[in-house]
Amino acid sequence: MLQKLFFLFIIRPILLIILGMNVRHKERLPKNGPAILVANHNSHLDTLVLMSLYPLRDVKMIRPVAAADYFLKNKWISWFSRTIIRIIPIARRGTKTQDPFKELNESIQNNEILIFFPEGSRGEAERFEKFKSGIAHLSAKHPTVPIYPIFMYGLGKSLPKGDPILVPFFLDIFIGEAVFWNGNKDQFLKRLHDDIQALRDEGRIVEWE
Length: 209
Fold this sequence. Notes:
Blueprint: H1 2-19, E1 21-24, E2 35-39, H2 45-51, E3 62-67, H3 68-71, H4 75-85, E4 88-90, H5 102-109, E5 113-116, H6 134-141, E6 147-153, E7 171-175, H7 185-202
Parallel strand pairs: 1-7, 2-5, 2-6, 3-4, 3-5
Antiparallel strand pairs: 6-7
Helix pairs in contact: 6-7
């Protein structure tokens, strides 16, 4: 209930009225899980935007994958992340755990839809960082689960890394067609990168000044 109220009265008004969100190829979004949404990452709003692509009744099945060291760093952020956003925390490189994919595997088995940012953390506005290998390892474990590349434009100026100010802007969200694990990590990561780049090119994006 708290999650629905949060999206209904806070997030959706911000996205639709203040920022103005336009979604292209929304028909390509998976209606059911298991599935994985993979997108570029520039803002704290990225996760909330992707969750808002779904009707309120379905938001509970969307599970963002997020860095445990950041989103569980104190009890308040941890409660909000776990209870309202329903993140799946994952340890970043250098942190020892028995199985960093345990909760991800369980989520996929429960037919949920994961949100995964292959760049790892927020980068410069609409510029791609090198994709990390985590998404390849996850896909290799679940080769029949479809992965949907997504490009988001405009969020790089709304709550970007190091800037707490929400700048009103327009958002364009481009949904790509599903891809699957192809058996080769490097080729798979390149395919994902190329597909998101193709979505960016489709929008004829203008570089920030």
